[in-house]
Protein backbone atom coordinates (compact mmCIF):
# COMPACT_ATOMS: atom_id res chain seq x y z
CA UNK A 1 0.00 0.00 0.00
CA UNK A 2 1.31 3.43 -0.94
CA UNK A 3 2.66 5.73 1.75
CA UNK A 4 0.20 8.49 2.62
CA UNK A 5 1.39 11.09 5.15
CA UNK A 6 -1.35 13.14 6.77
CA UNK A 7 -1.19 15.68 9.63
CA UNK A 8 -1.47 14.05 13.05
CA UNK A 9 -4.77 15.14 14.57
CA UNK A 10 -5.72 14.49 18.20
CA UNK A 11 -9.40 14.19 17.31
CA UNK A 12 -9.09 12.06 14.21
CA UNK A 13 -6.32 9.90 15.69
CA UNK A 14 -7.37 9.80 19.34
CA UNK A 15 -7.57 5.99 19.31
CA UNK A 16 -4.57 5.34 17.06
CA UNK A 17 -1.75 3.11 18.32
CA UNK A 18 1.70 2.53 16.81
CA UNK A 19 3.63 -0.70 17.21
CA UNK A 20 7.16 -0.40 18.57
CA UNK A 21 9.59 -2.82 16.95
CA UNK A 22 13.09 -2.89 15.51
CA UNK A 23 12.49 -4.98 12.42
CA UNK A 24 12.72 -2.03 9.98
CA UNK A 25 11.08 -4.14 7.28
CA UNK A 26 9.50 -0.95 5.93
CA UNK A 27 13.05 0.04 4.85
CA UNK A 28 13.68 -3.19 2.92
CA UNK A 29 13.73 -1.42 -0.46
CA UNK A 30 15.53 1.73 0.71
CA UNK A 31 19.05 2.02 -0.74
CA UNK A 32 19.55 5.71 0.14
CA UNK A 33 18.50 7.46 3.34
CA UNK A 34 18.72 11.19 4.00
CA UNK A 35 21.52 11.85 6.49
CA UNK A 36 21.57 14.85 8.82
CA UNK A 37 24.69 16.50 10.18
CA UNK A 38 23.97 15.57 13.79
CA UNK A 39 24.51 11.90 12.93
CA UNK A 40 27.44 12.15 10.49
CA UNK A 41 30.04 11.04 13.05
CA UNK A 42 28.09 7.91 13.98
CA UNK A 43 26.99 6.98 10.48
CA UNK A 44 30.48 7.45 9.03
CA UNK A 45 31.71 4.49 11.08
CA UNK A 46 29.03 2.26 9.56
CA UNK A 47 28.02 3.37 6.05
CA UNK A 48 29.15 5.68 3.23
CA UNK A 49 27.81 9.24 3.20
CA UNK A 50 27.65 11.02 -0.16
CA UNK A 51 26.08 14.04 -1.82
CA UNK A 52 23.54 13.71 -4.62
CA UNK A 53 22.06 16.40 -6.83
CA UNK A 54 18.30 16.77 -7.10
CA UNK A 55 17.53 16.14 -10.80
CA UNK A 56 14.51 18.43 -10.61
CA UNK A 57 16.21 21.39 -8.94
CA UNK A 58 19.61 22.94 -8.48
CA UNK A 59 19.92 21.49 -4.98
CA UNK A 60 22.17 18.95 -3.31
CA UNK A 61 21.29 16.48 -0.56
CA UNK A 62 23.37 14.34 1.78
CA UNK A 63 22.47 10.66 1.92
CA UNK A 64 23.70 7.49 3.59
CA UNK A 65 24.23 4.58 1.20
CA UNK A 66 22.46 1.43 2.37
CA UNK A 67 22.98 -0.49 -0.86
CA UNK A 68 24.61 -0.38 -4.27
CA UNK A 69 21.40 -0.87 -6.25
CA UNK A 70 17.91 0.59 -6.18
CA UNK A 71 15.48 -1.26 -3.89
CA UNK A 72 18.37 -2.97 -2.08
CA UNK A 73 19.07 -2.37 1.61
CA UNK A 74 22.15 -4.43 2.43
CA UNK A 75 21.91 -3.53 6.11
CA UNK A 76 18.60 -5.32 6.46
CA UNK A 77 19.11 -9.07 6.79
CA UNK A 78 15.65 -10.54 7.23
CA UNK A 79 14.33 -8.57 10.19
CA UNK A 80 17.76 -7.77 11.67
CA UNK A 81 19.67 -4.52 11.07
CA UNK A 82 23.33 -5.31 10.33
CA UNK A 83 25.06 -2.41 12.04
CA UNK A 84 25.23 -0.32 15.21
CA UNK A 85 23.62 2.81 13.71
CA UNK A 86 20.39 3.45 11.83
CA UNK A 87 19.80 6.79 10.02
CA UNK A 88 17.39 9.08 11.85
CA UNK A 89 15.23 9.34 8.73
CA UNK A 90 14.56 5.62 8.98
CA UNK A 91 14.08 5.64 12.74
CA UNK A 92 11.42 8.38 12.51
CA UNK A 93 8.96 6.24 10.51
CA UNK A 94 5.92 6.13 10.48
CA UNK A 95 6.16 9.76 11.57
CA UNK A 96 7.54 12.72 9.70
CA UNK A 97 7.88 16.43 10.34
CA UNK A 98 6.75 18.67 7.49
CA UNK A 99 5.57 22.22 6.84
CA UNK A 100 1.99 22.61 8.02
CA UNK A 101 0.83 26.10 7.16
CA UNK A 102 3.43 28.55 8.52
CA UNK A 103 4.96 26.09 10.98
CA UNK A 104 6.27 22.55 11.10
CA UNK A 105 3.81 19.81 12.02
CA UNK A 106 3.91 16.12 12.85
CA UNK A 107 2.62 13.84 10.10
CA UNK A 108 1.94 10.11 10.11
CA UNK A 109 1.67 7.51 7.35
CA UNK A 110 -1.92 6.39 7.78
CA UNK A 111 -1.24 3.30 5.64
CA UNK A 112 1.69 2.09 7.74
CA UNK A 113 1.70 -1.52 8.92
CA UNK A 114 3.02 -0.18 12.23
CA UNK A 115 -0.42 1.18 13.08
CA UNK A 116 -1.72 -1.62 15.26
CA UNK A 117 -4.22 -2.32 18.00
CA UNK A 118 -1.35 -3.80 20.03
CA UNK A 119 0.81 -0.68 19.78
CA UNK A 120 1.52 2.35 21.93
CA UNK A 121 -1.32 4.91 22.17
CA UNK A 122 -0.60 8.34 20.71
CA UNK A 123 -3.01 10.19 22.98
CA UNK A 124 -4.31 9.83 26.51
CA UNK A 125 -8.00 9.56 27.34
CA UNK A 126 -7.88 13.29 28.12
CA UNK A 127 -6.73 13.98 24.56
CA UNK A 128 -3.16 14.91 25.51
CA UNK A 129 -0.07 13.55 23.80
CA UNK A 130 1.05 10.28 25.40
CA UNK A 131 4.59 9.86 26.74
CA UNK A 132 5.32 7.76 23.65
CA UNK A 133 4.19 10.55 21.32
CA UNK A 134 6.06 13.19 23.33
CA UNK A 135 9.27 11.20 22.86
CA UNK A 136 8.61 10.92 19.12
CA UNK A 137 7.85 14.65 18.90
CA UNK A 138 11.17 15.46 20.60
CA UNK A 139 12.97 13.13 18.21
CA UNK A 140 11.30 14.77 15.22
CA UNK A 141 12.18 18.22 16.57
CA UNK A 142 15.83 17.19 16.90
CA UNK A 143 15.75 15.78 13.37
CA UNK A 144 14.19 18.95 11.94
CA UNK A 145 16.82 21.14 13.62
CA UNK A 146 19.60 18.88 12.36
CA UNK A 147 18.20 18.95 8.82
CA UNK A 148 18.11 22.75 8.83
CA UNK A 149 21.76 22.79 9.89
CA UNK A 150 22.50 20.21 7.19
CA UNK A 151 21.03 22.55 4.58
CA UNK A 152 23.36 25.33 5.77
CA UNK A 153 26.27 22.88 5.63
CA UNK A 154 25.46 21.84 2.05
CA UNK A 155 25.08 25.48 0.99
CA UNK A 156 28.54 26.25 2.38
CA UNK A 157 30.12 23.23 0.66
CA UNK A 158 28.60 24.20 -2.68
CA UNK A 159 29.62 27.86 -2.34
CA UNK A 160 33.22 26.80 -1.61
CA UNK A 161 33.15 24.52 -4.67
CA UNK A 162 34.37 21.53 -2.66
CA UNK A 163 32.34 18.83 -4.39
CA UNK A 164 33.64 16.37 -6.94
CA UNK A 165 31.86 13.56 -8.77
CA UNK A 166 32.76 10.02 -7.79
CA UNK A 167 31.89 6.71 -9.42
CA UNK A 168 31.97 3.11 -8.23
CA UNK A 169 32.77 0.27 -10.63
CA UNK A 170 31.46 -3.06 -9.41
CA UNK A 171 32.26 -6.58 -10.51
CA UNK A 172 29.92 -9.28 -9.24
CA UNK A 173 30.63 -12.96 -8.62
CA UNK A 174 28.68 -13.90 -11.75
CA UNK A 175 30.97 -11.68 -13.84
CA UNK A 176 28.43 -8.89 -14.29
CA UNK A 177 29.86 -5.37 -14.17
CA UNK A 178 28.09 -2.09 -13.51
CA UNK A 179 28.88 1.50 -12.62
CA UNK A 180 27.23 3.34 -9.73
CA UNK A 181 27.07 7.03 -10.67
CA UNK A 182 25.43 10.28 -9.60
CA UNK A 183 27.35 10.67 -6.34
CA UNK A 184 29.60 13.47 -5.15
CA UNK A 185 32.09 13.75 -2.31
CA UNK A 186 34.60 16.26 -0.94
CA UNK A 187 37.65 17.20 -3.02
CA UNK A 188 40.43 17.01 -0.43
CA UNK A 189 42.87 19.05 -2.53
CA UNK A 190 40.41 21.98 -2.72
CA UNK A 191 39.75 21.66 1.00
CA UNK A 192 43.45 21.90 1.82
CA UNK A 193 43.82 24.93 -0.46
CA UNK A 194 41.14 26.95 1.35
CA UNK A 195 42.32 30.20 2.99
CA UNK A 196 42.98 29.91 6.72
CA UNK A 197 40.08 32.19 7.59
CA UNK A 198 37.66 29.92 5.68
CA UNK A 199 38.98 26.83 7.47
CA UNK A 200 38.55 28.59 10.82
CA UNK A 201 35.01 29.57 9.84
CA UNK A 202 34.20 25.95 8.95
CA UNK A 203 35.70 24.77 12.23
CA UNK A 204 33.74 27.23 14.37
CA UNK A 205 30.48 26.38 12.62
CA UNK A 206 31.04 22.66 13.27
CA UNK A 207 31.26 21.98 9.55
CA UNK A 208 34.93 20.98 9.38
CA UNK A 209 34.35 17.86 11.47
CA UNK A 210 31.33 17.03 9.30
CA UNK A 211 33.46 17.34 6.17
CA UNK A 212 36.03 14.88 7.47
CA UNK A 213 33.28 12.50 8.61
CA UNK A 214 31.91 12.45 5.05
CA UNK A 215 35.38 11.88 3.59
CA UNK A 216 36.22 9.08 6.01
CA UNK A 217 32.86 7.39 5.47
CA UNK A 218 33.82 6.34 1.94
CA UNK A 219 35.93 3.64 3.59
CA UNK A 220 32.61 2.01 4.51
CA UNK A 221 32.03 1.13 0.85
CA UNK A 222 33.97 -2.00 1.75
CA UNK A 223 31.30 -2.69 4.36
CA UNK A 224 28.66 -2.74 1.61
CA UNK A 225 30.78 -5.18 -0.37
CA UNK A 226 31.02 -7.38 2.71
CA UNK A 227 27.27 -7.22 3.34
CA UNK A 228 26.61 -8.21 -0.28
CA UNK A 229 28.01 -11.66 0.55
CA UNK A 230 24.62 -12.58 1.99
CA UNK A 231 22.85 -11.78 -1.32
CA UNK A 232 22.29 -14.03 -4.32
CA UNK A 233 24.95 -12.21 -6.32
CA UNK A 234 27.81 -10.94 -4.08
CA UNK A 235 30.15 -8.17 -5.17
CA UNK A 236 33.61 -9.58 -5.95
CA UNK A 237 35.46 -6.35 -6.61
CA UNK A 238 34.91 -2.60 -6.22
CA UNK A 239 36.86 0.37 -7.57
CA UNK A 240 36.20 3.97 -6.54
CA UNK A 241 37.22 6.68 -8.98
CA UNK A 242 36.91 10.45 -9.32
CA UNK A 243 35.21 11.79 -12.46
CA UNK A 244 37.11 14.84 -13.71
CA UNK A 245 35.54 17.84 -15.43
CA UNK A 246 36.44 16.46 -18.87
CA UNK A 247 34.65 13.20 -18.13
CA UNK A 248 37.79 11.12 -17.58
CA UNK A 249 38.28 9.05 -14.45
CA UNK A 250 41.14 8.68 -12.02
CA UNK A 251 41.42 6.34 -9.05
CA UNK A 252 40.33 7.90 -5.76
CA UNK A 253 43.17 8.61 -3.36
What does this protein structure show overall?
The protein is α+β, with helices and mostly antiparallel strands. It is 27% helix and 28% strand. It is built from seven helices and 14 strands. It has helices at 40-43, 88-91, 131-159, 188-192, 196-204, 207-217, 221-227, and strands at residues 5-7, 17-18, 32-34, 49-53, 60-65, 76-77, 80-81, 95-100, 103-109, 120-121, 163-172, 177-186, 235-243, 249-251. It has a seven-stranded antiparallel β-sheet with strand order 3-5-4-12-11-13-14, with helices on both faces. The radius of gyration is 20 Å and the shape is globular. The mean pLDDT is 93.
Quick rundown:
With 253 residues, this protein is of the alpha+beta class. The protein has helices at residues 40-43, 88-91, 131-159, 188-192, 196-204, 207-217, 221-227; strands at 5-7, 17-18, 32-34, 49-53, 60-65, 76-77, 80-81, 95-100, 103-109, 120-121, 163-172, 177-186, 235-243, 249-251.
